[in-house]
Design a protein that fits this description.
By secondary structure, the chain is α+β, with helices and mostly antiparallel strands. Helices cover about 30% and strands about 30% of the residues. The strands form 5 sheets. The chain has a 4-stranded antiparallel beta sheet with strand order 2-3-5-4. A 3-stranded antiparallel beta sheet has the order 1-7-6, covered by helices on one side. A 3-stranded antiparallel beta sheet has the order 9-11-10. The two termini are about 45 Å apart.
Length: about 250
């Protein structure tokens, strides 16, 4: 019988944590991508602008202000919103400014999804510790908190280190590379030494079988084609060459 009964925190002791999810971090990532999409579409339509920025990155990261676009471009802006940014609302302001904000229902969904994803991530990490019957669930009323109870685990600092380590997956379009070094990548650009505004340089590795294997640099799109929030499932696997790979939906 003793093997069948799992004692809780009150009888066995353990670790009790209440975690605050930084949901605005998820919103900020979305807003940063939104600004890059706006810049790209304005360039494509040859619409001049003075600046694009977030009005309050810490408290309202989804609020974006576009400055220096004439009112005559309203039709083009509405078309951009409809085709590329349906999650956002747009309103005009004074002095040729335009304000963008994520629709309230979608903003709430994004924050709630951040909590759900955090719970799933924490559960996967805790399962790897072999803790029997842990409690991992939402806590509080609309405060984006998570309750974690781990019976029999008396090393809270290790648990915090495992839980709080962060990772974010982004799939970006490759625009150039691989380059042997960062300097080589800079010199290979259309304007040597200048990276296009819609791109960034990232370190990586050359593909297996390449002439020079090892570290390499790639020019990739600044805007993510796919981010972690778009994934429903991901599992480790092997590719056609037998190398470690990730299969995802």
């Amino acid at each position: 019988m003793s093997k069948r009964i799992n004692l809780g925190l009150d009888l066995r002791g353990g670790t009790h944590l209440i975690l605050q999810v930084k949901v605005n971090d998820a919103v900020n990532v979305d807003a940063q991508n939104t600004m890059e999409v706006l810049k790209e579409q304005l360039r494509n339509r040859k619409i001049d602008y003075a600046d694009i920025s977030q009005t309050d990155q810490q408290n309202n990261p989804d609020h974006i202000i576009l400055k220096g676009v004439q009112s005559s471009a309203r039709g083009d802006l509405l078309s951009i919103m409809s085709d590329h940014l349906p999650e956002y609302d747009m309103t005009g302001g004074a002095d040729n400014t335009w304000n963008f904000a994520m629709k309230p229902s979608l903003l709430a969904d994004l924050k709630n999804k951040a909590v759900t994803q955090a719970i799933d991530t924490i559960r996967n990490r805790i399962d790897a510790l072999g803790v029997s019957e842990p409690t991992i669930q939402e806590h509080g009323l609309g405060q984006y908190q998570i309750l974690v109870q781990l019976p029999g685990v008396d090393d809270p600092e290790r648990v915090k280190a495992i839980i709080q380590s962060t990772a974010m997956l982004e799939i970006k379009q490759s625009l150039g590379g691989p380059y042997a070094s960062e300097q080589a990548a800079m010199q290979a650009q259309q304007t040597p030494g200048v990276i296009p505004s819609d791109a960034i340089l990232l370190p990586g590795h050359s593909a297996p079988g390449a002439e020079s294997e090892g570290q390499a640099w790639y020019l990739v799109s600044r805007v993510s084609a796919v981010s972690g929030k778009d994934l429903r499932d991901a599992q480790p696997s092997r590719d056609s060459n037998g190398q470690p790979s990730v299969t995802f939906t």
